[in-house]
Amino acid sequence: MSRVTEMPADSNRPSLRHRLQEHDLDRIVLLALPALVFVSALFIYPSVYGIVLSFQPVDNSGFLGNYSEFFSDPYLRSTITNTFAIALPAALFNVVAALPLALMMRKQKRGQRTINTILVLPITLGTVLVAQGLLMYLGPKGWLNRALMFIGLTDGPIQFTHNRWAVIISLVVTGFPFAFLLMLSYASGINPALESAARTMGANGVQRFWKILLPLLSPGLAITFCLTFVLAFSVFPSASILGDPSGDSHVLSIAAANSAFQQYNFPMAMAISVITAFLELSVIGLVLALRSRFYSGSTAASKDDYVEHFSTEASNKGTRLA
After folding, report:
1. pLDDT tens readout for residues 79-122
2. Scanning 87, 92, 152, 192, which has its CA 20 to 30 A from the CA of 275?
3. Which has the closest alpha carbon to 231: 91, 40, 49, 38?
């Protein structure tokens, strides 16, 4: 008489792989767990701890004591306008200047590697070294003042440093290569057949830029502006070395550092950091909301597809681009 082997009670339980598949997950997702632990330990937890700390003023002035003190102090409140006055011009200039160069370089294969290498050098040097170099170059005894006095354009040295414009120049030097490389990657992804199709339909260069290139580049423009703006908004070394930290270059990062390491008021420093993050996220949200009004789709459509779209648009308007 054959003996019936009893199966373990849990033999009918699905394996881990099948349980993950039931939740539309894969075992590869488990590889993200170390990264999640790393981000949680070094970013999420410090951020949450800092936000909680910002609501605990050292003088026990109330739940919103640090924020009330910040916005009631004209000197601290002016750091917001000072930071925007530096970050916005630098970010806008980097994006606007990088756009035509990226459109030109996407078709210019010869010498592109050399130009990219030259533009990457300021990024590798770092903000501190660039700021120190500009301090010596633009200073009263720097090469620029010496050249101006040598050719007779000025009798004495001009004050180029320790002001807001020196900080903006430093941010342009370090931020423009970053903006250019980003714009070049977006511009290189646009199918050249789209412009050829528009040219076949009679569109001139200006019309091709406004009707084709700019809408297709709008995602790249938005992302590039957001990243360069965040880099410029958190300016610290340039504002300390090239600017006037107690004057028009008294930005949010310097105010936070002074509160933390001079006054040892870490809750106030965290409150300023939270305000900085809120302002940055507000600008990023506004830019991305505006970007959604432009074209959204692939930049690699075929020539025939775009000819059909362009012809339909022209017929609906009852006009032909000429």
Report:
1. 999 999 999 999 999 999 999 888 888 776 676 778 777 877 87
2. 92
3. 91
Residue 188 makes CB contacts below 8 A (sequence gap 6+) with 106
CA distance linking residue 303 with residue 56, whole number of Å? 61
Question: What sign does the dihedral 208-212-218-224 (CA atoms) show?
Answer: negative
Write out pLDDT tens, residues 238-278: 999 999 998 889 999 999 999 999 999 999 999 999 999 99
Give 202-228 as a 3 state SS string: CCCHHHHHHHHHHHHHHHHHHHHHHHH
Q: Give Rg (Cα) of the chain.
A: 28
Q: How many domains does the chain divide into?
A: 1
Q: Quick one: which of 169, 182, 259, 174 has its CA closest to 219?
A: 182
Query: 303: domain range?
Result: 50-317
User: 309: domain CATH number?
Assistant: 1.10.3720.10
Tokens of 40: 């949680």
- In a domain, residue 167? The reply is yes
Closest among 74, 11, 76, 22 to 269, alpha carbons compared:
76
- Tokens encoding 72: 């009631």
- Judge whether 27 lies within some domain: no
Burial of 179 (0-12, 13-18, 19+ CB in 10 A): buried
Judged against a pLDDT cut of 70, whether residue 289 lies above it is answered with: yes
On whether the CB atoms of residues 260 and 54 are closer than 8 A, the answer is no
The answer to the question of residue 1 being in a domain is no
Return the pLDDT at 206.
80
Instruction: Report pLDDT digits (tens) over 189-204.
Output: 887 777 778 788 877 8
272 close to 80: Cβ distance less than 8 angstroms = no
Residue 32 lies in a domain: no
